[in-house]
TrEMBL record, chain A:
<feature type="domain" description="Phosphoribulokinase/uridine kinase">
    <location>
        <begin position="1"/>
        <end position="68"/>
    </location>
</feature>
<comment type="pathway">
    <text>Pyrimidine metabolism; CTP biosynthesis via salvage pathway; CTP from cytidine: step 1/3.</text>
</comment>
<dbReference type="Pfam" id="PF14681">
    <property type="entry name" value="UPRTase"/>
</dbReference>
<dbReference type="InterPro" id="IPR006083">
    <property type="entry name" value="PRK/URK"/>
</dbReference>
<dbReference type="InterPro" id="IPR000836">
    <property type="entry name" value="PRTase_dom"/>
</dbReference>
<feature type="domain" description="Phosphoribosyltransferase">
    <location>
        <begin position="176"/>
        <end position="278"/>
    </location>
</feature>
<protein>
    <submittedName>
        <fullName>Uncharacterized protein</fullName>
    </submittedName>
</protein>
<dbReference type="Pfam" id="PF00485">
    <property type="entry name" value="PRK"/>
</dbReference>
<dbReference type="InterPro" id="IPR029057">
    <property type="entry name" value="PRTase-like"/>
</dbReference>
From TrEMBL, chain B:
<dbReference type="GO" id="GO:0005525">
    <property type="term" value="F:GTP binding"/>
</dbReference>
<dbReference type="InterPro" id="IPR029057">
    <property type="entry name" value="PRTase-like"/>
</dbReference>
<comment type="similarity">
    <text>In the N-terminal section; belongs to the uridine kinase family.</text>
</comment>
<keyword id="KW-0511">Multifunctional enzyme</keyword>
<keyword id="KW-0021">Allosteric enzyme</keyword>
<dbReference type="GO" id="GO:0004849">
    <property type="term" value="F:uridine kinase activity"/>
</dbReference>
<dbReference type="InterPro" id="IPR027417">
    <property type="entry name" value="P-loop_NTPase"/>
</dbReference>
<keyword id="KW-0342">GTP-binding</keyword>
<keyword id="KW-0547">Nucleotide-binding</keyword>
Length: 294, 447
């Protein structure tokens, strides 16, 4: 153990709680509870549990009502958990802070039994969080405004030169296409824009590298690219971060790895097929594109 | 009002914004108590030296010993230095009050050889973290009430005696008989009568003192985290402010700007509200669930808490319903209407809540937390319907410090999630800098 806690609550308080739990919740009668307490519970506490208190690093009095101590432990665990190991290696990799809600959404989109409708709903919610996080990395300029109460608010002005570029895969042919969001091709002036590169799954990193090379060949500075993923395999992160140390990757979870078919594990299957419901024919999702390599 | 505050005040009037003086920034106060030679000082010194941060100061209770008169000095070996009356607690309280109000103080310089205060004392600047250390700092309830975290360093009495003998004979050159006499006559009885009973007020007990690296590391990390937070979050662990990015700051700039159009106001308020809602949902409980992915791998996941509802405070709170519905399909949403001006006139006009609300987690929706008066009214209503306090998550876009103090003091188990903490309230109880009448701007009902 790295940290040993002992929760220390007075014996009478513990007995009162036990009586309440065993009689009300478990429906046992009071004399049985007291009998068990004096025969087994108390001697075991005195002989075995109490003597282990001396090994504790921290003693927490009063248990669950002690908000200050719980805050202390929670904050500590958060700082220890804080970073995925890969974030320590690559300072340009950002994993959005996980909550049970985010973990719950991941559970739904990863489950092979989830319906298309639910898949889209929860994937959209997660993607929105990734996009918001990604936008948080854009530069800014300071700006002061006057609020309706007449006070000054020192805020910031958004970076205006921005565009999104999504990576589209034509499944069987393993050809990578790059298409711009809401435009027929990459914007003319892309070289002086910040680019949000969109791909829900970072697997081997091969398509990502091709897409990033295309952007750089169009004059986009490497440091102006923010690559947004829903999930990322460590292999892909290594490939992209080593080759392009100045781009930023924002993702919501780092996976275990890739299997022998280069599919992300545990993963969520073929994202496009599940999202667009195009298990048989995924040609139609390639709406507008510029072939990168044919 | 002193002249400095007065001039700040008149300056702010000149600038066109009349505002009350800002509430002083509250430091996070940690009390460290424990018996003689328990390792308190070692623990505090390790904390201070590892933090290397001028925003952390140490105040020692020993500095507040009463100076001894000549009569007492003649019989100094009979004097009980471990008794609460040996300390000038009034002076300690006034020094701590000054520090808490953001003013520098002179801490007395107590000389242990002459048992008198000497020199001009030591100047201590107001800081973000104040550590108050001493054998009896947990004894007096007025001193305890100043503290945000109370630590008791607990070391076995034989170890403490051994350390004390070592310290008093080797370092201070006293004779062993003398030391043992004093220990039996005053140190031990005072420990049992005053110090040990104060242990029950501690939030955290650290066994073994200075040798306990794990505990010291834990406290240091905690202080570091507190230094990085808004000061209200360090005082109230149940206040959660969304991590700010330039994008969020940019959205705030737009919703706060008086010149922003209704269309843009709604767009950016909605984006911010959605982030607040997502953050709030992150505080709900869960149960574990393993599922299989399409690649055939097992994913150890979680299942959401199902017993959930929203309650919006009419009218502004209704602006947050869409974001909640967009995240939680088919969620039940209740409504509360509270009306009235000022501190005492808040009236509950209307309520429509789910019948089974007592068994649900409640997301209480109100974009602006100002004085906290309506919030308290709304929360009291929820509690009267049987909702468990710790099951309430109160979601705001912006919150004034006054409202946070009011709600958190009254309901320590409820959670507040907000995207920014504002500076203060003006005399009309409007949030400063604020964003004006939220409902009017969002629903376009200025006239």
């Amino acid at each position: 153990m790295n940290m040993k806690l002992f929760v220390d609550t007075d014996a009478d308080v513990r007995l009162a709680r036990r009586i309440r739990r065993d009689t009300v919740e478990k429906g046992r009668d009071i004399s049985t509870v007291l009998d068990q307490y004096s025969k087994f519970v108390k001697p075991a506490f005195d002989d075995f549990i109490l003597p282990t208190k001396k090994y504790a690093d921290i003693i927490i009095p009063r248990g669950g009502d002690n908000h200050v101590a719980i805050d202390l432990i929670v904050q500590h665990i958060c700082t220890k958990l804080g970073q995925h190991d890969m974030c320590k290696i690559y300072p340009n990799l950002y994993v959005i802070q996980s909550t049970f809600q985010i973990r719950g959404m991941h559970t739904l989109i990863r489950d092979s039994l989830t319906t298309k409708h639910d898949f889209v709903f929860y994937a959209d919610r997660l993607i929105r969080l990734v996009v918001e996080h990604g936008l948080g990395h854009l530069p800014f300029t300071e700006k002061q405004v006057i609020t309706p109460t007449g006070s000054v608010y020192t805020g910031v002005d958004f970076c205006k030169r921005l565009c999104g570029v999504s990576i589209i895969r034509s499944g069987e042919k393993k050809v990578t296409m790059v298409s711009s969001l809401s435009m027929k091709k990459l914007p003319q002036d892309i070289s002086d824009r910040h680019v949000l590169l969109l791909d829900p799954i970072l697997g081997t990193g091969n398509s990502a590298v091709q897409a990033i090379l295309l952007l750089i060949s169009k004059g986009v500075p490497e440091s102006n690219i923010i690559f947004l993923n829903l999930i990322s395999a460590p292999q892909g992160v290594h490939v992209v971060c080593k080759r392009f140390p100045r781009i930023k990757i924002v993702t919501s979870e780092i996976e275990t790895g890739l299997n022998e078919d280069f599919r992300v594990v545990p993963g969520m299957g073929e994202f496009g097929d599940r999202y667009f419901g195009t298990d048989d024919d995924d040609e139609e999702l390639v709406v507008a594109h510029t072939p990168l390599r044919s | 009002m002193d002249s400095e505050t007065l001039s700040t005040f008149s300056n702010s009037i000149k600038n066109g914004s009349i505002s009350a003086p800002d509430p002083p920034k509250q430091p996070f106060v940690i009390g460290v108590a424990g018996g003689t030679a328990s390792g308190k000082t070692t623990v505090c010194n390790m904390i201070i030296s590892q933090l290397h941060d001028q925003r952390v100061v140490l105040v020692n209770q020993d500095s507040f010993y009463h100076s001894l008169g000549d009569d007492t000095l003649a019989e100094v070996y009979d004097y009980n230095f471990d008794h609460p009356d040996a300390f000038n607690t009034e002076l300690l309280l006034s020094c701590m009050a000054m520090l808490k109000n953001g003013r520098a103080v002179n801490i007395p310089n107590y000389d242990f050889k002459t048992h008198k205060r000497i020199g001009p004392g030591c100047k201590v600047n107001p800081s973000d973290i104040i550590i108050l250390e001493g054998i009896l700092v947990l004894h007096d309830s007025r001193v305890r009430d100043l503290m945000n975290m109370k630590i008791f360093v607990d070391t076995d009495s034989d170890l403490r005696l051994a350390r004390r003998i070592q310290r008093d004979t080797v370092e201070r050159g006293r004779n062993i008989q003398n030391v043992l006499d004093q220990y039996a006559r005053s140190v031990k009885p005072s420990f049992e009568e005053f110090i040990l009973p104060s242990k029950k007020y501690a939030d955290v007990i650290i066994p073994r003192g200075g040798d306990n690296d794990v505990a010291i590391d834990l406290i240091i990390q905690h202080i570091r985290a507190k230094l990085g937070q808004h000061h209200l979050c360090s005082i109230y662990p149940n206040v959660s402010v969304i991590h700010s990015t330039f994008q969020m700051r940019g959205m705030h700039t737009l919703v706060r700007d008086v010149k922003t159009t209704k269309h843009d106001f709604v767009f950016y308020a909605d984006r911010l509200i959605r982030l607040v809602v997502e953050h709030g949902l992150g505080h709900l409980p869960f149960t574990e669930k393993q599922i299989t992915t399409p690649t055939g791998s097992v994913y150890p996941g979680v299942v959401f808490c199902k017993r959930l509802c929203g309650v919006s405070v009419i009218r502004s709170g209704e602006s947050m319903e869409n974001a909640l519905r967009a995240c939680c399909k088919g969620i039940k949403i209740g409504k509360i209407l509270i009306h009235g001006e000022g501190n005492n006139g808040r009236q509950l006009i209307y309520e429509k809540l789910p019948a089974d609300i007592s068994s649900r987690h409640v997301l209480l929706l109100d974009p602006v937390l100002a004085s906290g008066n309506s919030a308290v009214k709304a929360i009291n209503l929820l509690l009267s319907k049987g909702v468990v306090e710790s099951n309430i998550i109160f979601l705001n876009l912006i919150a004034a410090p006054q409202g946070i103090h009011m709600v958190c003091k009254k309901f320590p188990k409820l959670k507040i999630v907000t995207s920014e903490i504002d500076v203060t309230l003006d005399e009309d109880l409007r949030v400063i800098p604020g964003m004006g009448e939220f409902g009017d701007r969002y629903f376009g009902t200025n006239n």
